Amino acid sequence: MGIITVEKADHLFWLGRYSERVYTTLKLYCDGYDSMIDLDDQYHKKLCELLDIPDIYESKDDFISRYGYDKTDPNSIISNLLRAYDNAIVMRDEIGTETLAYIQMALYGLEAAACSEAPMIRIQKVVDNLLAFWGCVDDQIDGRCIRGVMKFGKRVERLDLYLRFQRSPSEIRRNYSRLVPRAVESGMPYNKEALEQLKQTIQAPVIDYDAALTQLGRILDV
Amino acid sequence: MHDICREADAINEQLARYGVKFGIYKNNVFKEQLFPFDAIPRIIEADEFAYLERGLRQRVTALNCFLADIYSDKKIVKDGVIPPEFIYSSSGYLPQCEGVKPPKNIASHISGIDLVQSQDGTWYVLEDNLRVPSGASYPLIARDLCRRASPRTFRERRIEDNRNYAGLLKQVMDYVNTGGDNVIMTPGRYNAAFFEHSYLAEKTGAALVTGSNLFVENDVLYYLDYSGEKRRIGAIYRRVSDEYLDPMNFLPESLIGVPHMFDVFRKGNVAILNAPGNGVADDKGIYYFVPKMVKYYLDEDCITRNAPTYLPYYEQDRRYVLDHLGEIVIKDVAEAGGYGVVFGSKLTRQEKEDMAALIQSEPRRFIAQDVIDFIDIDIMENGERTPRKADLRAFVLSGEDVVVWKSGLTRFSRDPDSFIVNSSQGGGFKDTWVLSR
Q1: Same domain for B222 and B96?
Q2: Rounded to a whole number, what is the distance in Å from the CA of B278 to chain A's nearest CA?
């Protein structure tokens, strides 16, 4: 199946973005959880600031509970996973039941973690399912443009998050170089000028992260 | 079969993994629920199925003749076989369809015929569903999992493989296709049967679309791909009710339809599966006349049997219904999905009086049937076999040939005191095995 509607392309793009957002923020959440056990009481404040989300959490325990699993918190990981699910469920015909199943299982896994006495140990299953999801995308989806659109979304999100976290220039450059071919393969319209400007920004000896984020945001303005 | 029952939990876990769910609205809130699967199958012997197959093919052929006739010459009305009131007062009759001939003159491509088997083994048809019958996808995916759970069962027993459903559906779509792509049109993610829409799209290779993806230009139906290229549609298996299909021809407030889609159909430029207007043939009142249709159009005796049915519209029947209100089941012809079904035995005295008054004031609105004590089928509950009421939805696909799918959806009631098997009312489902010898 190579022909997809505009609406479907949008769902695929956001499926890529949200599943990547969940994957990367889960890793940060797990790292943060570890440091919040006995090392860093303020970690969650920094995380909120970097993610540019309101710090509505009353304490680190409140953050651990709500940022991970509260479906009424629009910025929580589970809310983002539900958005990935919402975009995936309408794409069964394009991505296939087998591929969709990994998003479904990731959601079951996070819901199970939420109810568990020891949620962090169970989050590994969620991460495994997200990785399996991307493996299944490569293995099972024949349509190059379908994979391309999803991976374009994934790469935009990864770079966005890495810029927010001011990751090292080498990591930023590596992820930029992974983004460019996906933009081309997706077949989606994108702003080539913004992509070129972003390249200039991240090649500078000192990266202006805010400028880079703005340029990344403009890539989809066409 | 023992192996399958032993693995029932594993099968249900896999069904959850694959998102085999149905949506339900409770207090205006949408919820997705898993459709509980019971691993003990319904088994239909080869000769028994051969009888059903003959009967169902005949029945659906006659119903298709009826639909072609009723929107053209109306010979069956003119010849006095069916009173005109039953046509024109049916909510499923669409005057817009008058004179419209669907591609290959097939109106009901996918027919879901609901049957029950009485204690003496007789099969009775309870309903003909000719609009958008759902349910085939559930036994389809369950069979795959049962084969994984117990290959030995399927090696040792001669069970017809039911996994050709998507292939049969595609053949029908291809046959009536007027030139262009096949698509499945869904009302969207929050429809009760969305799993089925998306699963069948995947399995048939048809594009899954919503009304907002489609448009009409110069009497041709298209969808737009993301690079801006128009794709012509030749066959649309719509899972949207007639009234919401096209706001220019039906309900103007419909937001999920496609303006002028019906005009494209009228001009013969797209096949709509099932055709608009089929509701007139699966009206519960018209059901009474199906055996007469078979005789009228095919000059054959009807093979399938209707449940003994009374039409309060006829005075003699009305008297019988009012005299036996406590023993029969009353159905509101406008309702579906197990709603509007009232068992007289469960009514209080006051409720009986109210129902009698309603029947007298609106006789066309109801049919009444003798309660068929249909057979129980065992389900597993808390590790033990326990009997429950179950029906069978058989699927008949009409394209170049009329084919009865060698399987079906067996739905069962989880409530031991209930005859209502609908998923929307808490029922579960089973696989249906048709033995090949």
Answers
A1: yes
A2: 27
